Amino acid sequence: MKRILILTAGFGEGHNSAARGIRAGLARVAPKVEVELRDLFPETFGAFNEIVRRAYMALINHWPKSWGYVYNWLDRKKDFDQRFQRFHGLKKNLGRLLDRFQPDVVVSTFPPYPYLLDQILGSERRCKNIAVVTDSITVNAIWYRSPADYFFVANEQSAAVVRNGGVPPEKIKVFGFPVSPRFADFGKNRQSPVKVVPRVLYVINAGTRRAPQLVRKLVELDIQLTVTVGRDEKLHRAIEKAAGNRKIDIFGWTEEMPRLLCENYLLIGKAGGATVQETIAAGCPMVINHVVSGQEEGNARLIVETNSGAIALSNDEAVAQVQRAFASDAKQWHQWSANIGKLSRPRASLDIAEFLLSL
Predict the structure, then answer these.
(1) For 281-299, what is each residue's pLDDT tens digit?
(2) DSSP state of 124
(3) Residue 108 sits in the same domain as residue 194
């Protein structure tokens, strides 16, 4: 029986989302295959990893331009393999896991792992080494300079970047982002927003300080608003207060994002790798209100350059884009919807699972 090891890390939701999507795809395609999903960073570094992770999340959420300098610095590096030689504890834990689980395929959604796997196994590599690139267009060199056997990318635009970085075309596989296979379960045939009150989903995972003000502005529009606040109870109360006596739906942490995205007509949110790819899978145009410099710029470019939505970095701009989308018989929304539909690959995790089983 084939064994597949999936490696991830909690530095940004895109990595975890991709890992979970692949695991879910494998569970559907081949439920008897042995699959293990692990994040070795907290296991190796303990409390220190959580400090670094929280610092990283604070940086990208509150000072996104600062992270852009770090991202660009990393992109210029050419000695990744040498730098990862220093990760002795991480390599030790990965080596133990490989010895115990004996995987046929190792799938990495976080860039250091393919380097570490190659360093551990060397010429005696007994398993396939797969890198799943979780960002679009602005793909950091840390991804494509790795010794992976295959590189899974979300779209042709990202494939071109990886190919231009020196990766042979036969190693690049364009499957789409491995979103939950539940996205393939929902229909995308939305009624024209001219005939119904359009539903708008506001996903708050950055810019929380200005979120209540945006909600106060959005409830004044002729839309049906849904807001997700994650596990932030303080934010939940602030959004309830901002809505006043207007009826809106508020969700905390939820597993219903596939359904919500497929039911709504427009998403307002940050340009995270998972968020952008999930809205594409759902065929739901997007108004991007937060962009982390470097790694998320390509995700935002993908939406804008394909005319599948817009960037609106202030609350007033976001409201204006929502109004524009549904004005003049929703002319702009129909254009965005048709274009994002061309990008949509809701079966990506299932296609990836079938490929992994073929190796």
Answers:
(1) 999 999 999 988 776 888 9
(2) G
(3) no
